[in-house]
Amino acid sequence: MGKRLNLLGFDFGASSGRAMLGALEDGVLTLTEIHRFSNDPVLMNGRFLWDVQRFFYEMKAALNKCAKQGIALDAIGIDTWGVDYGLLCANGQLAGIPVHYRDERTNGIMERAYEIMPKEQIFAKTGLAFMYFNTLFQLLAMKEQGDPQLEIAQKLLFMPDLLAYFLTGEMGTEYTIASTSQLIDPYTRDWCWDLIDTFGLPRRLFTPIQPSGTVRGYLLDQVAQETGVGKVPVIAVACHDTASAVAAVPAQGEDFAYLSSGTWSLLGAEIRTPLCAPSVMEANYTNEGGVDGTIRLLKNIMGMWIINECKREWDRRSDAVDFAGLVERAAAAQPFYAVIDVDDGCFTAPGDMPRRVQDYCRRTGQPVPEGRGQICRVVYESLALKYRWGVERLEQDLLKKPVKVLHIVGGGSKNQMLNQFTADALQRPVITGPSEGTVIGNLLVQAMGLGAIQDMGQLRQIVARSFPTVTYQPQDKAAGWDAAYERLLKLL
């Protein structure tokens, strides 16, 4: 592997961000947290907005910490959530503050879009599952509402590309983040120009697509001097956080599925050729870009968002209980009390989530859970059951072959109870770890961009060598889970 590489990965999530130093030496990667900060979207004048100036400030703070510690950086990479973007004017400045994907401006826009181009045709062209916040629908909402930003904007940059632009002054669009937009042709891996033209979106907004591992540029002189780190290269890694997480799955062979577990649960498999058949659309699976020419055939399942929002509401009402305490209460609660479809629209927006779980159970004729432990038990079991549904769709309808093991990476992989529930619901092994999959993928794709890693096989060997995993075998009898699964199927 040659000399030690010091790689700095910025990993932005929906509620927090961090800068992690990855030291790659002799085929082993070690991690050190350099800087962590909260990500606090702002509701202002009726719009739910991202505080991007704060992001840039925190990035420079992390770089300054590296300089103070005498760390000579070899590269920098950035990953974020998908779909969201900033618009730039002709002078290179932001046309406005980037809007959060959970903003309400896209309400009803999908149905009106289908009047211009039928849903089936959009899917055949893009292979992307339909989510109200996809970039296509955000742009159409801006157009429909006569947003002046869209008229004056010259370029569109997705969030990680925008942050890289702040650091380097160089514009570009990385493939995996662009693939979340519903504006990409998954076969050519380029912009779907006929769709863009049909919807009347300006072609000038879209910059050329670059593969993961492309050197985007070097820190601007002002940033290099202000932070003290010098002219470090910024690499367009697998900029969509899920693409980075999937790259870090320490899998062997091809008969596996993956689950990137965080605010969202992204469940899927790696394939080489996109699947854009009607059956894929009906299962609401999506074709997103991966590293090294792969396609991530996956489904967005609501993840820890429901638990996080429950905790937020309980913390607001009374004394706070940490997540470990909620798990303990859930473990002591009655099993299979009720089942919810975690992807029901009532769970999408922020708000009083405990009440929504109860209202859903009441509305569907089930016992209504009371207390924190019972509500959390219902949510955790329902997540495991929805994971089973997703794996069965992969096996039976899409891949047409068995999935022998599920790999779980990301922060949710640390929840031992949910991991065991998932193994029991699936009745097959679940392998968890690394929990820091997203930033590990970010760091190792930087190494690929520098030429220190040759391919995905070598990258995954480094992951397996560097980080432990835990295997969960099914323990619970299938009968209880099968009965609960039948209840979920009726709800669906």
Strand element count? 21
**What is the structural class?**
alpha/beta
* Rg (C-alpha, Å): 22 Å
Our count of helices gives 19
Major β-sheet profile: 7 strands, mixed
Assembly level: single chain
General form: globular
User: What is the first-to-last residue Cα distance?
Assistant: 50 Å
Unreliable sequence segments: none
Strands of the widest sheet, in order across it, are 17-18-16-15-19-20-21
Beta-strand content bin: 15-25%
What is the typical, i.e. mean, pLDDT?
95
Helix content: 40-55%
Explain what the structure shows:
- The protein is α/β, with parallel strands linked by helices.
- The strands form 6 sheets. It has a 7-stranded mixed β-sheet with strand order 17-18-16-15-19-20-21, with helices on both faces.
- The protein is globular, with a radius of gyration of 22 Å.
What would a concise description of this structure say?
The protein has 492 residues and is an alpha/beta fold.
Outline the secondary-structure elements.
Elements: E1 5-12, E2 16-25, E3 28-38, E4 42-44, E5 47-49, H1 52-68, E6 75-79, E7 85-88, H2 109-116, H3 119-126, H4 135-144, H5 148-152, E8 155-158, H6 159-168, E9 173-174, H7 175-178, E10 184-185, E11 190-191, H8 193-198, E12 209-210, E13 214-218, H9 221-227, E14 233-236, H10 241-247, E15 256-261, E16 264-271, H11 278-282, E17 286-289, E18 295-302, H12 305-317, H13 323-332, H14 353-363, H15 372-399, E19 405-409, H16 416-426, E20 430-432, H17 437-449, H18 456-466, E21 470-472, H19 478-491
Parallel strand pairs: 1-6, 6-14, 9-12, 15-19, 19-20
Antiparallel strand pairs: 1-2, 2-3, 4-5, 7-8, 10-11, 13-14, 15-16, 16-18, 17-18, 20-21
Helix pairs in contact: 10-17, 12-15, 13-15, 15-16, 15-19
